[in-house]
Structures are given as structure tokens and as C-alpha cells.
Amino acid sequence: MSLRLRAYDSRDADAVWRLHEWAMREAGTDPADIPGTDDLRAVGDRYLDTGGTFLIGVLPASAATQNCPRTVDGSVVAIGGFLPSEVGHDDERTVAGAAELHRMRVAPPLQGDGYGRQLLAALETHAADAGFSVAIATTAHRQGRARRLYTAAGYRAVDRSTLGEYDLIHFEKRLDSKNG
Predict the structure, then answer these.
(1) Per residue of the chain (180 residues), what is the pLDDT tens digit?
(2) How many domains, the chain?
(3) Mapped to the 3 state alphabet, what secondary structure does 61-129 carry?
(4) Is residue 180 part of a domain?
(5) Per-residue DSSP letter, 31
């Protein structure tokens, strides 16, 4: 199925939240334990109004997407965004000139089908086009799929930290208009 990536629309709010909770539970993380998720309740303010981007991956309704949250134009199967590192989360690294990736999620039954790679590539392109020279991302060590996604896309682990019960890995990748 061909994923259609588009900009966030306020009508997506419920579907974005539901996909976030579902993906986190399936990854073995209680969504209520994740700090800073209030950004998903205010995507316009936190991402779009600060110079960032938030994308929605939509597929037509089908048997494969029957459990995925629905929005006005189909089933939401992927979400993710970036914001300038300087306005990112207080508990994460700040790197001047960086786009800080956040809330990369793919519907659990569709993980491994390439939708995360498509979403990541689109976010990198948007970030490079907006003038960001670096993309940074942080993920919990326990999220093996996320670690493999970033590594396969050319990110390198540059640091580790701990936040509460989470062992975190910090990734970084240089961007330009050719590899965006």
C-alpha cells in the first residue's frame, strides 16, 4: 500500500493521540510514563508555530488498517515531527541548528513495512529544506525498532543518558539538500 504523507491538521488530534498510545503500549512502554507528551495535545502550538513540522502517514481503509485510528481521509498509520532543538524538550539535548525529531510512531501491525523509513526521510527533507543542518533524535534503549531505524538511516549514536527508568540513546545525522 502506498503511504500518503501530509501535514498535520487539527482534525487529526484524536487519531494522533490514539496511535501514540497504541504504539507505546506495544513497545512495552506505558504512555502515561513518557514525559512531555503534552506536545501531542498541542501539535499546532508546539510544532507548527515554532518552525517545526508534524506529518501524518495515511493509508486507505483496508483489512490491514482496520485497527488503526481513523481521520478525515483514511487510517493514520504513521506520525512524527520535528521542532528546532532550541525550543525542544527541556530534558533532551540542545544542538544549535538542529531539527529535533519527536513522536515517531508507526501502527504496530505495520511496523517493518517501510512506513517509518518513509516518514523519517520526509521529515529529514522538510528539515533540510527549512535550513536545519543536523537532525537529532532520542529513543529508549528498549525500543529496538527505533534504534535500528535510525542506524539504518545513517544516524550515529552520540550519547547516552537516563531519565527515570529509561536508558536513552541520543542520535545525530548531518543533513543537506542532497541526503535530507
Answers:
(1) 789 999 999 999 999 999 999 999 998 888 888 878 889 999 999 999 999 999 999 999 888 899 999 999 999 999 999 999 877 655 566 788 899 999 999 999 999 999 999 999 999 999 999 999 999 999 989 888 999 999 999 999 999 998 878 899 999 999 976 544
(2) 1
(3) CCHHHCCCCEECCEEEEEEEEEEEHHHCCCCCCCCCCEEEEEEEEECHHHCCCCHHHHHHHHHHHHHHH
(4) no
(5) G
- Whether 69 maps to a domain, the answer reads yes
Residue 66 lies in a domain: yes
Task: Count the neighbouring beta carbons within 10 Å of the beta carbon of residue 142.
Answer: 13
Give the 3-state secondary structure of residue 19.
Answer: helix
- Give the helix, strand, coil percentages of the chain, each rounded to 5: 35, 30, 30
Instruction: Determine, yes or no, domain membership for 179.
Output: no
CATH of the domain at 49: 3.40.630.30
Range of the domain at 140: 4-174
Cα dist. 163→13, 30, 166 in Å?
27, 14, 5
